Amino acid sequence: MASSFDQYQKRKLISSYFSVVISIALVLFLLGCLGLLVLNAKKLADHFREQVVVSIYLNDSAKEVEVNQLKKSLALADYTKEAKYVSKEEAAQIVKSDIGEDFMEFLGTNPLQNSIDVYLKADYVTNETLDGITTELSTKAFVEDIKYDNDLVEIMNENVKKITVWVLIISAIFTLIAVLLINSSIRLAVYSKRFIIKTMQMVGATKRFIRRPFVSKSIQLGIIGAIVALLGMGIVLYYLNANFPELELLQKPILIGLLFGGIFLLGILITWISTFIATQRFLNLKTDQLYY
């Protein structure tokens, strides 16, 4: 009979430890993913900004020498990430692919123009910079028109500012929630042993002696939870880097290493502080208060 009770208590203890580890791991994992987002927020914003294209349409009368000179000057410009020449034939193939039919069969001719598509560096994707580029290039006689999505650029820049602010706010709130959730899990684990704590105190054990095994066990659970969280973060990072290599998520290994180390230390620190406070609370309670 006693053996069955001991096995029941052991299973209950393991279940309690398991739930604490899972709670710590989930919270730290989500906090770590948020940290990855914060570290790469600018890179993500820059990636979308650099998708904005400035199309420079050329006259059919433009000389090859003039076009080559323009391409070279654009490629060497500080604001250019990539400059790509698109002939009218290539443009026609792109349009046919997009609409799913050969529009030139109806028109009998190709109405499209030769063009140069310029992709700007992220820091230059502003309406002021684009207006300056447009004004400068419009002076060339063989340039017929310059087009870019002005509204998209304005909306994108406004949203980037808003998202940056909200990411920082959410990060602060989520950090607080993480601390509270882990603290709650630890307190529940300690609460289940409040009578053991009081019994040890009544037989003369010091507070430090009583706290030591609880703090030690909690730190062990914090380490296990942090390792599980870091494994999850590693899988997420590997998946994103494999499927979205253009984001270059692994280009800052030092920052990523600091983030992983910070999550690991945070798991230890929160569990240590939470256990210390929880055990101290029950040590200071009177025996009759343990029932409430």
Short description:
By secondary structure, the protein is an alpha+beta fold. The chain has helices at 2-39, 41-49, 64-76, 88-99, 104-107, 127-137, 150-191, 194-202, 207-243, 253-284; strands at residues 53-58, 80-86, 115-120, 143-147. The protein folds into two domains: 16-45 and 157-291, no CATH class; 53-148, Alpha-Beta Plaits (2-Layer Sandwich).
Task: Fill in the keyword field for this structure.
71% helix; alpha+beta; 2 domains; Alpha-Beta Plaits
Strands of the largest sheet, in order across it? 2-3-1-4
Beta-strand portion reads 5-15%
Spans of at least 5 consecutive residues with low confidence: none
> Can you tell me the number of structural domains?
2
Largest sheet: 4 strands, antiparallel
Give the SSE order as H and E letters: HHEHEHHEHEHHHH
Query: Structural class, judged by helices and strands?
Result: alpha+beta
Mean pLDDT: 80
| Tally of separate helices | 10
In angstroms, what separates the terminal alpha carbons? 30 Å
Oligomer: single chain
Rg over alpha carbons: 31 Å
* Helical amount: over 70%
Number of strands: 4
What spatial form do the alpha-carbon principal axes imply?
Answer: rod-shaped
